[in-house]
Design brief:
Elements lengths: L3 H29 L4 H10 L3 H28 L6 H16 L7 H9 L6 H31 L12 H7 L1 H16 L2 H32 L3 H29 L5 H15 L10 H13 L4 H28 L10
Helix pairs in contact: 2-13, 3-4, 3-6, 3-10, 3-13, 4-5, 4-13, 5-6, 6-9, 6-10, 6-11, 10-11, 10-13, 11-12, 12-13
Length: 339
């Protein structure tokens, strides 16, 4: 029974992620079917220069290769010597799992599992995946914060100043707090509720302690190679800015006149949001938030913003095809790690 509970929970989570995507796709189809939006979207894609899309896709693919190089460098600092192409293949395989596969096994776990089959330094290999993900996340947040503070803060992009759903949230936050308090109080008055809260608290404490230990160990190991960390961080910032700039060119080609600074803030924010496993590869959630941000804060037409969001998803899906091929032909197996 104890072994069955985790598997049941995983199946439920996978089902919920699939339902989020299916429900979101249905909602988008219904939305597009009204007020002539299908025709507008078709016209937008008809005027798009495919060579611009191809160039954006090429930039994205190059960035994916360089991120694989980043992880390869992090592995080498810990004395884990696998081939560059092997590291790139494993990264592409992980990207495929993150964006396409509905299972509960993420791309980081895939990378971790396969690389530990090659080396005796399993602890260091695991930390390399953690540090690689942390570098990507921190650089994304840094780009968003920098461009918001330096360029967009003066334009008063603030939730409280809007008359939309975000403004309502800022005004009626106390209702959310009150509802949460009622739910929490109800759980406390029930024996099963108290047991559930106790289990949740125990998991949070255990998970927090593990995460803290991993951070300490990562700092201890990678603190010996500060130049490599700085170089990989700078590389990540350049790659992300280059990729977003490509999407800005694509947006201009679609007829979107918004400043490039909006792209640097909005794209990075939705990338962070997409890392939360509420759907498959952040599908629907990323697109919905990107459209909402551009419509409400950059004065972009809804259909134009949707076209841009769909283009990003198309690029991501096409970029997942190499990982799918690697998975099918087994090029990620340990026997191939020497090259």
């Amino acid at each position: 029974m104890a072994d069955g509970e985790p598997n049941k929970s995983k199946r439920i989570l996978v089902l919920l992620r699939v339902l989020v995507v299916v429900g979101g796709v249905i909602a988008v189809v219904v939305w597009l079917s009204r007020e002539g939006r299908w025709a507008e979207l078709k016209a937008i894609f008809a005027r798009m220069d495919m060579w611009v899309f191809v160039c954006v896709f090429a930039v994205f693919c190059f960035s994916q290769f360089m991120v694989g190089l980043r992880w390869w460098l992090l592995l080498r600092t810990q004395g884990i010597f696998i081939g560059l192409w092997a590291a790139v293949r494993l990264y592409l395989l992980g990207w495929f799992y993150n964006n396409v596969m509905p299972g509960s096994v993420g791309g980081d776990l895939i990378r971790l599992w396969y690389v530990t089959k090659h080396t005796e330094k399993k602890f260091e290999a695991g930390l390399s995946v953690l540090v690689d993900r942390a570098i990507g996340l921190l650089s994304t947040l840094m780009i968003a914060s920098f461009f918001y503070v330096v360029f967009l803060r003066s334009e008063k992009i603030a939730f409280a100043g809007r008359g939309d759903s975000a403004g309502l949230l800022s005004r009626y936050w106390w209702l959310i707090v009150a509802a949460a308090s009622v739910v929490f109080g109800g759980l406390l008055t029930n024996s099963r509720g108290r047991a559930l809260l106790a289990r949740l608290g125990s998991r949070v404490r255990t998970g927090g302690a593990k995460a803290f230990r991993k951070l300490l160990n990562a700092g201890r190991l990678y603190g010996r190679s500060p130049l490599v960390i700085c170089a990989t961080f700078a590389l990540t910032v350049v790659l992300q800015i280059t990729t977003i700039t490509g999407f800005w060119f694509l947006g201009r080609n679609l007829g979107i006149e918004a400043s490039i600074t909006y792209y640097y803030v909005f794209f990075t924010l939705v990338w962070v949001l997409g890392a939360v496993p509420v759907s498959i590869g952040g599908a629907v959630v990323v697109e919905g938030m990107l459209v909402w941000l551009f419509v409400n804060y950059a004065a972009v037409a809804e259909t134009d913003a949707m076209a841009l969001a769909l283009c990003q998803r198309f690029v991501w899906l096409l970029g997942s095809l190499p990982g799918a091929m690697i998975h099918l032909i087994g090029a990620h197996l340990p026997k191939d790690f020497s090259s």
